[in-house]
Amino acid sequence: MTQEQKTLQELRRVRRQKLAELRELGYDPFPYSYPVTHHSSALQGLEDDQFPAEVHIAGRVVSLRRMGKASFAHLQDHQGRQQIYVKRDILGDDIYRDLFGRVDLGDFLGVQGRVFRTRTGEITVEVARMELLAKSLRPLPGVKEKDGTAFDPFEDKEQRYRRRYLDLIANPDVKQVFVRRAQVIRHLRELLDSEGFIEVETPVLQPVYGGASARPFKTYHNTLDQTLYLRIADELYLKRLIIGGFDKVYEIAKNFRNEGMDKSHNPEFTALEFYWAYADYNQAMDFTESLLRSVAESSGGTRLKFQGQELDLAVPFARHSYFEILNKYADKDLSRLDSAGQLNSFAAGRGISLEKDLNYGQALNKLFDLLVEPHLVQPTFIVDYPKALSPLAKTHRSGNADLVERFELFMAGMEFANAFSELNDPLDQRERLEAQAQLRAAGDEEAQPVDEDFLEAQEYGMPPMAGVGIGVDRLVMLLTGQDSIKDVILFPAMRPQQP
Questions:
Q1: How many structural domains does the chain have?
Q2: CATH number assigned to the domain comprising residue 48
Q3: Which domain holds residue 80?
Q4: Residue 69 forms part of a structural domain
């Protein structure tokens, strides 16, 4: 056992002893409720002539200065910190000694008293009555403060992600990221609702996954005696609803993809998908631009700093066709290369190493990732994708059978949105999904399976429509200036901790 572990063990022993002593003295260290009347931010915003005669406040003890017959402490609630003044002559000898004397950092207290301003100007609650609301049996991370400056902070990223509750206690600014996340999601809902979209819910457990190119998580339902998959996208179920008669639907939902993790990928993530009958990808592009600009305006402004780069969402988003921009950065017309072998030869000639056994679509997509995406800093729509990458998109109206009507939105070198003029020809759709099945049989684990139920639904007639998917986590990253997706997910996926 390390010295740190021994110290923790001793601190826990002492706290348990205090808990037992409190119970012996007749105090309930875990009561059922407390009548809170005010929160910290409400008190801090008052002028002296606005102080209420008495308040009830509650929170976690995050600082404690004992000074004999009088003490100061700070209680932290969900809005901030509030100083309290605890004086033996006011509280009473027994409570000051027996109850307050056994209070530790991390305990929850409820206090009642008058509000005043100290000589240093800090609004403070003078405690007339005190109640222990929860005894903390473990010490908080060693955050200390002096003259408003924090030192010895809880900064270990991995531990902060694993113990988010401690991160929120020790680093209150983190909470504001998630408050803003909630505001972003609420604003997305309000905008879509105002445009006549209906929020719906679709199954998380699906007998056939689809709507994206990804490996699924697999599970088993005992009662149904059936293998099921966690959804990788909402798409095919939302399209069923358009077939059924809805004109505009959306869902903000958790999706699950059994793939690698990095700063912009988590296996469980939140996505917005909306589908719009009788619209195409051009209308969806305009709407997506206005939607994201409005969300940015509501979240602090359209000029953003992200990962050392400055972005401006007020300026009209750039638009480039897929092969136009790929050819520019490849310095070669890659649209003329129509096999994985030719793309691999090109890559090798440029010193680019591609994984073995990639099919044509995978190799093309990898080259785009490497050659183009790092240059897409300002908001940019990439349009008119190759059909090989887009089995659910409608063939381009220009007559080029190798292209589809699809766009992706990139900012700061990352993809934020993906959209199609949706393929509504059931015969063409079957051919595309069967081609995907052949790729899957050849080893492409991310190729989509054939969904016979969806194809049957489509045969009843599916109107033309536009469909858009937006990565909510990445959008929050951008709007809050966070470098990692783990910083905008309260409980991100983590590798098992080593003993």
A1: 2
A2: 2.40.50.140
A3: 3-140
A4: yes
The reported pLDDT for the residue numbered 1 is 63
pLDDT at 143: 53
pLDDT above 50: residue 84: yes
Q: Is 175 helix (H, G, I), strand (E, B) or coil?
A: helix
**Could you tell me the pLDDT band of residue 134, with boundaries at 50, 70 and 90?**
very high
- For residue 237, give every residue at least 6 positions away whose Cβ sits within 8 Å of its Cβ, in sequence order, or none: 202, 203, 206
Please state, in angstroms and rounded to a whole number, the distance separating the CA atoms of residues 396 and 4: 65
One domain, residues 265 and 402? yes
pLDDT in tens, 56-77: 999 999 999 999 899 999 999 9
Confidence band for 150, pLDDT divided at 50, 70 and 90: very low
Three-state secondary-structure class, residue 137: coil
Is the entire prediction scored with pTM above 0.70?
yes
Amino acid at 440: R
Report residue 229: phi and psi, to 5°.
Answer: -130, 145
106 and 229 part of one domain = no
Domain-embedded: residue 185: yes
| % of the chain with per-residue pLDDT over 70 | 97
Same domain as 413, residue 268: yes
Statement: residue 164 has pLDDT above 80: yes
Q: Residues 302, 296: contact at Cβ < 8 Å? A: yes
Query: Rounded to whole angstroms, how far apart are CA atoms 1 and 15?
Result: 20
Name the more confident of 147 and 404: 404
Are 28 and 122 members of one domain? yes
Question: Do 7 and 115 share a domain, yes or no?
Answer: yes
Bridge-based pairing state of the strands 205-206 and 268-277: unpaired
CA distance 40 to 78: 8
CATH number at residue 442: 3.30.930.10
Lateral strand order in the sheet of 205-206: 205-206, 226-230, 218-221
Report the alpha-carbon distance of residue 291 to residue 96 in Å, rounded.
Answer: 56
**In sequence order, what are the beta bridge partners of 256?**
268
Helices (H), 350-451: 360-371, 426-441
Same domain, 307 and 216: yes
305 and 428 belong to one structural domain: yes
Helix (H, G, I), strand (E, B) or coil at 462: coil
- CA-to-CA dists, residue 195 to 43, 59, 154, angstroms: 39, 41, 44
